[in-house]
Amino acid sequence: MNTNISEKTLQDLEFSTVLQHISEFCITGLGKEKIFETTPIQNKKALFKELNLVDEYLASFESENRVPNHGFDNIIAKVKHLAIENSFIETEAFLKIASTSLTVNELIKFFKKFQLQFPTFFSVSQKIEFTTYIDDEIKKIIDISGEVRNNASSTLKQIRRDINNVRGKIGASFSSALSKAIAAGYLDDIKETIVDNQRVLAVKAMYRRKVSGSLLGSSKSGGIVYIAPQATLSYSREYQNLIYEEKQEIVKILRDLSYTIRPMVSLIEEYISFLIHTDTVGAKAKYAKEINAILPKISREKKIFFKNAYHPILWRKNNQQDLKTIAQTITLHEKQQIIVISGPNAGGKSITLKTIGLLQIMVQSGILIPVDEKSETYIFDTVLTDIGDNQSIENQLSTYSYRLKNMRYFLRKCNSNTLFLIDEFGTGSDPELGGALAEIFLEEFYNKDAFGIITTHYSNLKVLANELDNVTNANMQFDERSLEPLYKLFIGQAGSSFTFEVAQKNGIPFSLINKAKKRVETEKVRLDKTISKLQKERNRLQKNSDSLEKQKSKGQEHLASLQEKEQRIQDKLSGFQELYDKNQKMLSLGRKTNELLNKYFQTNNKKELNSSFNKWVSDEKVKHAKRNPVKPKTKVQKQKAKTIAKQMQETIKKVEKEVLEKVVEVRKEKQIEAAIIAKKKSEYIFKINDRVRIIDSNSIGTIDKIDKKNVTINYGFFTTKTSIQKLELVEKAKI
């Protein structure tokens, strides 16, 4: 598959807007970036895999087995740094790597557990190595708060023990100096404070020489000086040395951990790619849920059938404004390879064209589309578009020159595996000359077996579409009274431009419209008028058809409701029957027990009571054993059961053989009887009021009329016509 879908086609169809909408559902920044890189997928196998992944994720929303969390931090830069020899990364980065590994492992386990529900996800995830090594090694060194554990090395453990001891000595020495200074009355009311992360004594300035230690500052007024006691200073220096040693040891430990994890860098990168892909798939599925999108059937046969299709961008915009979006149904196949849509402007021609193109591009990019579940499509190698006014100021090209250049590109790329979409085909030049050239282009596309949709106002293209076998006219329907667009596509008939009607509706004087009509060729006006009348008639018939369809739909809903009620009644009856059977059994047991007790009360014979009761229990046990045969447990029992089963099989085969011989004889007799009956039937002359049925039918009716070899059958509510050869007699007419 060699897909050739240009950037221009994606721009014409506003594909980037769809990607923007999808990106809003991503849970990571990397996922959003990846969404904007989405383009039509060239490899069919990869495309089907992507579509199935999105479809499985979408289905999980309606299931109890929702896809677990797959969010992660952007650690790409940290992983690249980790890959450098003799480098190390911070503890926070290691924890993020461990979290990423844990997330992927959870997903692998989940998709393995529910592989029947997520077969494609299972297939993808099984290609990734499942290992807890990364998480285990990191958690062994770093705790959940991001601190290196004390037992990460014996040296670190000893350093931290020493740090705690020195902290204790610093506290004790400062408390001693504080007590002495308080007793001597050297301190201000605040007693102590913190300077440069160190506890100091708040000494009155007049006593600064009385307290031994290091002067670290003073208050703004100068009345207080801040002194670190001499005894505390020596311990503080030791403490700072230990802190430095701790940092150096932590760096050494992190280097060792980096050396341990470094061989797993490629696997971590694979984990990140998997999570990014899962995020993009999840975003596509969430977007599909919002726009009610599904995965259409991908046909091997070249055809497009989009039933009740919506333009997703228009649908979203209208939905935000509480406006209704009209669905379109369109079909392209070998017998209808090109559709020519005509009709007045603002009727929805261009949006219909864009809808088909955008939905096709979305499918070929692994995105589900808002269509009916019965829809299907084909994967095209090339999608060509010429939509909108593409006048190029930079290249000094007019609209028509640009379109001719585009047509040259179309003619070069177009083949039997192409879908082309052209808006306002042939415009930009003299109507007659441009229309003639457009005819030639259309014939070229037709001869190359390309599929396509074009919109036009040119009458000659409408006529050509009517003449070519596999090209069909279509129009966007208008209300003939209000001249408001209905935005519904009708296949099979060209559309009127409603030029004069629209002009009159917009306030152009009737006298001017009449002058314009006189200047137009008579045949042209007649053709447009005829088309306009046909459209009006079609609209009227369409309304009747829609009404009948609604009635049919209501009837089917009513039938379904009745069938559901009938099923509920049947279920209740089954329940009552089961309850009745149980009650009957209990009554039977009660009657038997009552009978035994009454007999005992009359005779007062315990021995007879025990004998009768035991015999009754024994009989019931035999009946129960027949209904629920005990499975053999010991080898002897199993062997005996096999022997009995073998004997039964031999007996069954013998009986089957005898039965088959008799069946053959009976069949011969029935064939003779059937031949006699068939002969009688063929010789029978049907009469009016004979009760008959059509062969292979269950309904019985009465013959109302016989016309040579045809008959009219009355079924009471309706009549039908058929040939005599298709009838069989049920009951002769009573004379």
Shape: flat
The major β-sheet equals: 6 strands, mixed
Overall pLDDT score = 83
Please report the first level of CATH classification, the CATH class of the largest domain: Alpha Beta
Low-confidence stretches: 390-396
CATH architecture of the largest domain: 3-Layer(aba) Sandwich
CATH topology call of the largest domain: Rossmann fold
SSE topology sketch:
Layout: H1 7-12, H2 15-23, H3 29-35, H4 44-60, H5 76-82, H6 91-113, H7 119-125, H8 133-141, H9 154-184, E1 187-195, E2 198-204, E3 213-218, E4 224-229, H10 230-261, H11 265-290, E5 297-298, E6 304-309, H12 312-320, E7 328-332, E8 338-342, H13 349-363, E9 376-377, E10 382-386, H14 399-413, E11 418-422, H15 431-447, E12 451-455, H16 459-467, E13 471-478, E14 485-491, H17 499-505, H18 510-519, H19 522-603, H20 606-627, H21 635-683, E15 691-694, E16 700-707, E17 710-714, E18 719-723, E19 727-731
Helix pairs in contact: 2-3, 3-11, 4-11, 5-11, 6-7, 6-8, 6-11, 8-10, 9-10, 19-20
